[in-house]
Amino acid sequence: MRRTFSVAVYPRHQGKVLMIRHKRLGIWLPPGGELMPGETPLEAAARELREETGLEGRFPVVSDIDGTPAGLIGYEEHVAGSKGIHMNFVFVADVDTDAVQPNDEFEEWRWVDSFDDIGGPPNVAQLGRLAVTARPRFNDVSG
Fold it and tell me: Is residue 36 situated within a structural domain?
C-alpha cells in the first residue's frame, strides 16, 4: 500500500480554530495536504496554510522536547482512499486575521472553539481541542 507524508494545520485566531468543509470528502477538516519532495513537515504546513486559505501563520514552539518542530501538536495515520496511508504531522499556527481566501478544495469554512458537532473522524476533534489549548513554550517561528 502506498504511504505518503502529509500535514494538517489548525490555524487559530482569538481563541478559535479554522475548519474547512472539504469538497471531495464532504467533512470538516483542518487545512492540509501532502509534503512536496525535499520539504520538511513545517515547511509543508506553512505552504498548505497559505495555499489553501491565504493565511500566514506563526508556529509556536509547544513542546519541551528538543528537536520537535515548532507548532507540532501530534501525529496520526489514516487511510486516504487510493492515495494509501497518509502519515500526517499535525500543527497549530497563530494567524493575525480571520479573513480566509478559499481555494478550490473547499467553499465553506468556520472558526470554532467547540468540536462537539464537527463530525468526521474523532481525531479531528481531539487534535482541534489540543490546538485551542496548546501554549507556546518559547518563541514563535514564522511560516
Answer: yes
Name the domain count of the chain.
Answer: 1
- DSSP E strands in the chain: the ranges are 3-13, 16-22, 28-29, 32-34, 58-59, 72-79, 85-94, 106-112, 141-142
Separation of alpha carbons 58 and 138, rounded Å: 12
- Please give the Cα distance from 93 to 110 (Å, whole number): 16
pLDDT in tens, 129-143: 999 999 988 655 555
Range of the domain at 119: 3-136
- CATH for 99: 3.90.79.10
Cell digits of residue 7? 500535514
β-strands 28-29, 58-59 pairing: unpaired
Check residues 142 and 9 and name the one with the higher pLDDT: 9
Residue 108 CA from chain centroid, whole number: 16
Domain contains 143: no
The set of cell numbers assigned to 8 is 494538517
